[in-house]
Amino acid sequence: MPELSLSSESELSGQISKNREILTEPFWVRSLLTSIVILFVFVFLILPLIFIFAEAFKQGIAVYWASNSDPDATSSILLTLTVLIAVVPINTFFGVLLAWTSTKYRFRGKGLLVSLADLPFSISPVIGGLIFVLLFGDHSFLGKWLESQNIALVFNTTGIVIATLFVTYPFVARELIPLMENQGNSEEEASLILGAGTFHTFLKITLPNIKWGLLYGIILCSARAIGDFGAVSVVSGHIVGQTNTMPLQVETFYNSYQMTAAFSLSSLMSLIAIASLILKSYFDRKKVKNE
């Protein structure tokens, strides 16, 4: 390869300097844009969090503890955890299954299948909840048949789980599909050629390669399952002490002017959200390193 002359190196260096000048905005522009972003984040994200915790602890730790120990608040926390435990493993399993089949196999309709997985992103959660009420409620043929069999799928915990499954389904799959497409199939193909079975290949090859993306998706799925309001609000029936999850109970406290209780329960949800963001950032860095 011919070496660059001193004049060529000088011209190249001058061109790079000119490009940097073109791409670099003046200091006042950078400062203004940065200040606007910081101000926006503070006003719309940080300030509300500060206000929530300030109001929650306004009357002291004893009142804060008593508010979160209220039977209705405790019931909403336990119900939210129950829904979380039911929803996350199911959506993790089917999310991994969708990512595996859509990236490892070729079949007709694959694009449509992957597109349908994004349906909960494009439909309002309220509409999603309404669909399940109309489908499984006593307004439909299926709902009347279920009622005749003494099976209730709405206005109870089962309905909440079904609605939450719908709104949280895409998160795991959508994190894994780009990751698995980027990694390709060469390692899995080599494993299968050497005689390993599909399940063994998944455990030993695929799973270690996608573990950080999988954990990232699980965190997003869990956070949405805890915080969903729209779909759950429609299918729950708002039965205090029975079908109110944490977001619904916050609304109930607020509507009954129990502000301290509302902010106390909101602070718990905020802590969960902050913890989720920290874990999300950690898993995201790990996922980027593996890519």
Describe the structure.
The protein is built from 15 helices and no strands. With 291 residues, the protein is an all-alpha fold. It has two domains: 1-56, no CATH class; 60-290, MetI-like fold. It is globular and about 65 Å long. The mean pLDDT is 85.
Overall number of strands: 0
Low-confidence stretches: none
Give the terminus-to-terminus CA distance.
32 Å
Helical proportion, percent range: over 70%
Query: What kind of sheet is the major sheet?
Result: none
CATH architecture of the largest domain: Orthogonal Bundle
Radius of gyration based on Cα positions:
25 Å
CATH topology of the largest domain: MetI-like fold
Look at the structure and give the mean pLDDT: 85
Write the layout of secondary structure elements.
Blueprint: H1 6-23, H2 27-56, H3 61-68, H4 71-104, H5 110-116, H6 119-122, H7 125-136, H8 141-148, H9 157-168, H10 170-183, H11 186-193, H12 198-227, H13 230-236, H14 246-255, H15 259-290
